[in-house]
Inverse folding.
C-alpha cells in the first residue's frame, strides 16, 4: 500500500474519532483522574470512545498492524507497521471547553514515523505530514505547511503547554531560555507544534512526553522544514524532553542553553 493510500485511511480514522469525540465536547461529561494521587491527569469517555473507534477500524482493515494507544495500551507492537494513537492530546483544554486539543494519529514502520496527522474536529482542521512534506486542510483552505526563518532566540516566539509540568531543574533551564525569547506563550499541547509547522511560532520546549505525544507531530514538523529532537539532540520518537523548532539555528541556540 502506498503512502497516499495510508493518507486516505488516516482521514477515515480522523473522521470516526471526531464523530466519537464531538458529542462530548463542551458538555457536562464525567472526568476521571489517571494519576493515582500524582499530578492531575484527566481522561474522559470521549478519549476512550475515540480510541476504541480507531482501533476497531485499524483491526478491520489492517489486522496484522500493531497499535499503541494512550488509553488501551499496545498490541502486536513488534509488527512492521504500528499505529500510535492519542485520541485527545490536550484533555485539560478539552474538559475546560478550550479548543486547543487534537487527535494525534501516527503510522510507524520499523519504529520510525512515516505519516502523522493532528486533527481538530471542532475547528475542522487537519495537519498532516510524511517527513518530506506537510499540508493543512481546513476552513482557511488547503495549503502546504512551511516553517519560517528565525536565526536568534531574541526573535523567537516560544510555546509550551505549562512549565508546571516540568521537574524543577528542567523548569529552571526552560526559564533561562524564556528570558531570551521575544514572546512566550503557554497552553496548546499538540497545537503548538502545528503552529511552528505553519510558520506562526518558532520554538516548542517541553518535558515528560510519551511516544504517543510526539510520533504524529514529527513527520508534520519535519515535513514543513522544521527539526524536532530531545534536549540532548537525540531522536524525538521516544518522547521525554523535547525541542521543536522551525529553524535549525534557533533550535541549536535553545539546545545549547538547555543542555548546559
Amino acid at each position: 500500500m502506498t503512502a497516499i493510500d495510508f493518507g486516505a485511511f488516516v482521514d477515515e480514522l480522523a473522521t470516526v474519532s471526531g464523530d466519537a469525540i464531538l458529542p462530548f465536547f463542551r458538555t457536562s461529561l464525567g472526568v476521571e483522574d489517571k494519576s493515582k494521587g500524582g499530578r492531575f491527569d484527566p481522561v474522559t469517555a470521549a478519549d476512550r470512545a475515540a480510541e476504541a473507534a480507531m482501533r476497531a477500524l485499524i483491526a478491520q482493515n489492517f489486522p496484522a498492524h500493531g497499535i499503541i494507544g494512550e488509553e488501551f495500551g499496545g498490541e502486536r507492537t513488534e509488527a512492521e507497521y504500528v499505529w500510535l494513537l492519542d485520541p485527545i492530546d490536550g484533555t485539560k483544554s478539552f474538559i475546560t471547553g478550550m479548543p486547543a486539543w487534537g487527535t494525534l494519529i501516527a503510522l510507524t514502520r520499523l519504529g520510525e514515523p512515516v505519516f502523522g496527522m493532528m486533527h481538530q474536529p471542532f475547528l475542522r482542521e487537519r495537519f498532516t505530514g510524511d517527513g518530506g512534506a506537510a499540508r493543512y486542510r481546513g476552513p482557511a483552505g488547503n495549503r502546504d505547511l512551511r516553517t519560517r526563518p528565525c536565526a536568534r532566540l531574541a526573535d523567537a516566539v516560544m510555546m509550551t503547554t505549562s512549565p508546571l509540568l516540568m521537574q524543577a531543574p528542567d523548569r529552571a533551564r526552560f526559564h533561562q531560555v524564556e528570558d531570551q525569547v521575544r514572546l512566550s506563550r503557554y497552553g496548546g499541547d499538540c497545537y503548538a507544534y502545528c503552529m511552528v509547522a505553519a510558520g506562526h511560532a518558532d520554538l516548542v520546549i517541553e518535558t515528560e512526553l510519551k511516544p504517543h505525544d510526539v510520533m504524529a507531530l514529527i513527520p508534520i514538523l519535519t515535513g514543513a522544514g522544521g527539526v524536532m529532537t530531545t534536549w540532548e539532540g537525540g531522536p524525538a520518537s521516544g518522547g521525554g524532553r523535547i525541542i521543536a523548532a522551525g529553524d535549525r539555528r534557533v533550535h541549536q541556540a535553545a539546545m545549547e542553553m538547555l543542555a548546559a
